[in-house]
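Could someone model zinc ion with this protein?
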Amino acid sequence: MTAATVLREPSAWLRAAGAAQVCRIRRMGLDPDSTTGPALLAPLVGTLSNPDPQDDRRCDRCSRYCPPGEGYAVMLYRPTLALALIVGLCPVHAAVEGVSADV
Ligand SMILES: [Zn+2]
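Reply:
Sure, complex below.
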């Protein structure tokens, strides 16, 4: 397993998707801007409770399943100080973010 890439210059799509998740997390009563509270880790899309194992390799942007051997990029995006979002993208959309997808 390789370490996830941390995105420093996200696309407009990723910034918007991250902002939506920040709003969702605030509605849950959590503080993604806290400087003293716990750091938060969440998926960019959906929740961690989805039991479908194919979602582990489904593109967050186009929803395409990327079977092993096709490449899939896992990265972290930090829209706020205390929040890291896990992002999984197909090779096409990983390239949009400037990241290559590992096979
Ligand atoms: Zn995609």
